[in-house]
Amino acid sequence: MNLFLLYYSGAGNTQLVVSYLARELRRMGHRVTTRFARKGAELPDRFEYDGLIVASPVYAYQPPQTLMETVERLPELRSAPVFTLMTKGLISGNAPLTLSRAISEKGGIVVGHAEIIMADTLFILTSKRNSLLEKIMLLPNMMAVREIRKLPQRVLRSFEEKVPVPFRPKIYAKLTDFIARKFHKFVEQKVGQFYADERCDLCGACVGLCPESNIRIVDSRVLWGMDCEFCMRCVHRCPQEAIQIGRYIREAGRYVPPKDAYLRALLK
Ligand SMILES: Cc1cc2nc3c(=O)[nH]c(=O)nc-3n(C[C@H](O)[C@H](O)[C@H](O)COP(=O)(O)O)c2cc1C
Ligand code: SF4
Ligand code: SF4
Predict the structure, then answer these.
(1) Is residue 65 part of a domain?
(2) Whose CA is nearest to atom 7 of ligand 3?
(3) What is the pLDDT of residue 23?
(4) What residues are paired with 216 via a beta bridge?
(5) Would you say the CB of residue 236 lies under 6 angstroms from ligand 3?
(6) For every one of its 268 residues, what pLDDT tens digit does the chain have, with 9 covering 90 and above?
(7) Half-sphere exposure (Cβ direction) of 213: Cα atoms closer than 13 Å
(8) Which of 58, 78, 197, 212 could crosslink 88 through cysteines, CB 3.0-4.6 Å?
């Protein structure tokens, strides 16, 4: 098969799953074109693939806004079979429904869906570096590895069988929508509080890492704009661990999925 794999990822959980999936599908003889749905990502003019995979984290019970905008920019999918894949901390809320609706509007048919619980890239920042709580927060990755290994076969089976997946609004959606609104208010305050501490060596990595192009270096200072998805990519991936949000995450360790003791097994 000739597949197009569109994904978004902050700290890197979804990216690691996508790398594994693409590598295994290629090993089985399939062609896979992967594209990170960062702001302004280039997309094909025409959809000339046998299937589409859309992979997304769950942020505040929804897919990231930039992924949704990228899906809207896709060419007409001409009834192509689509597999949606979500990584989440625990509760996906209406994220699968939102994504499937956007795909249907582009003319795609969602024939497979998987949700994988992994370390929560936001909550892990509430634990202290090397603490017992941090270790507990990494435990979901142990279970995730088994699920991730099943994905290539699951995707191929869905594309063969082509049975549409019925998505319905979750009964608890009112509650998660309420929490999400509160969370967005919290985020609005926090996006103005990013800064690089004294460990920053102005390497510039964060500028390229940010999927929203929200970071600049001006006059030897790292500056954050307000166009932030709160994906935590810059925070977790800064080589100096220098990025702070106010005083909240100073004590927290940073989480890099390819270095995680459980997930590392997938890269072999
Ligand atoms: C801003 C933010 C909000 C999140 N909200 C949710 C959520 O509503 N439900 C959930 O299950 N996980 C939530 N998570 C956890 C992520 O979905 C999970 O860790 C995911 O695997 C991250 O993937 P990524 O590293 O590819 O971004 C959130 C994480 C972040 C950073
Ligand atoms: S990645 Fe970290 S060390 Fe490099 S410029 Fe950004 S904040 Fe500074
Ligand atoms: S500034 Fe950091 S947290 Fe915000 S979108 Fe960019 S990488 Fe993600």
Answers:
(1) yes
(2) 210
(3) 98
(4) 223
(5) no
(6) 999 999 999 999 999 999 999 999 999 999 999 999 999 999 999 999 999 999 999 999 999 999 999 999 999 999 999 999 999 999 999 999 999 999 999 999 999 999 999 999 999 999 999 999 999 999 999 999 999 999 999 999 999 999 999 988 888 888 989 999 999 998 898 999 999 999 999 999 999 999 999 999 999 999 999 999 999 999 999 999 999 999 889 899 999 999 999 999 998 8
(7) 5
(8) 58
Which pLDDT value is given to residue 170?
Answer: 85
DSSP track, 50-72: SEEEEEEE-BTTB--HHHHHHHH
Same domain, 125 and 66: yes
Question: What domain range includes position 241?
Answer: 190-256
Q: How far does residue 25's CA lie from ligand 3's centre (Å)?
A: 30
Q: How far is the CA of 235 from the centre of ligand 2 (A)?
A: 9
Terminal C-alpha separation, the chain: 24
Q: Is residue 241 a part of any domain in this protein?
A: yes
Q: For residue 15, give the amino acid letter.
A: Q
Alpha helices, H only, the chain: 13-27, 65-73, 95-105, 132-138, 140-161, 173-190, 205-209, 233-237
Mutating to test ligand 2, I would choose from 195, 200, 241, 254 the residue with most ligand atoms within 8 A of its C-beta, which is: 200
CA distance 7 to 4: 10
CB of 17 closer than 8 Å to CB of 263 = no
Together in a domain, 164 and 212:
no
Helix axis angle, 95-105 relative to 65-73, nearest 10°?
Answer: 20
Whether residue 101 is found in the same domain as residue 28: yes
Which pLDDT score, from 0 to 100, does residue 2 have? Answer: 98
